Amino acid sequence: MRKNFTGLLAWLVQRITAVYMLLFIVFLLAHFLVDPPHSYPAWHGWMMGSSVSIATVVFFAALLAHAWVGVRDVILDYVHAMVFRVGLLVLLGFGLTALGVWVMRILWMERA
Amino acid sequence: MSIRDMAASKRRRPVFFNLMQIQMPVGALTSITHRVTGIFLTLSVPFSMYLLDLSLQGPQSYEQVISLFHKFAFRGAAIIFVWVLAHHLLAGIRHLLSDVDIGSQLPAARRSAWFVNLGGIAVALLAAGALL
Questions:
Q1: Which CATH number characterizes residue A22's domain?
Q2: Residue A35 sits in which domain range?
Q3: What contacts 24+ positions apart, CB below 8 Å, involve B73-77?
Q4: Which pLDDT tens digit goes with each residue over A56-96?
Q5: Prediction pTM value
Q6: What is the assigned CATH class of domain B26-131?
Q7: Using CB atoms within 10 A as the burial measure, which of A28, A81, A89, B79 is most buried?
């Protein structure tokens, strides 16, 4: 059973996304230590700048892919009844997709 | 052993996930905490996104997010979040290193497991020092 769900691709996705997120978090932390935004215009301007907003959307894409592989592994290990297993995986998939759409709205669509 | 015997013994292999009855060495503690923190972090994504959204909507909602950090309960939650994230990141780095055969021998693996478990707490204490 398990063999059908897992594979080299999932393993690779888990690691590549982890490395990207790690670099992004270090970058974010460094920015907040060196030049913390002290006002709304500073924060908004920094966050909405094209490079930071793109890097942030990529971060969330990596996060959602990473969460998919990780939570899926946990579900496959602990939930054995097929109805619940598939139900939870579907819920997870829709939930993560919705979050992905939401973050793109936050960073790219709202507020000119 | 024939293929058939091997398949049969593989089917008889014990699958045992009752964590309350397993004697846990330090690496097991690191590993299960990596999982639990991963689930916790996944559940915290919508809340983080909500705060990000609020902080970017306008000056007033930005101030609302800032004022959250004046609340003691919110700071407490933030410190717990920092511990969860720090443990997950450190355990993840340990995983990546053992993928490239750094620290995968048992003594080194046990040392790095201690480092991860205590390192996560140390980072949380740093955050507590900064926030409280």
A1: 1.20.1300.10
A2: 2-109
A3: B75/B131, B75/B132
A4: 999 999 999 999 999 999 999 999 999 999 999 999 999 99
A5: 0.86
A6: mainly alpha
A7: B79
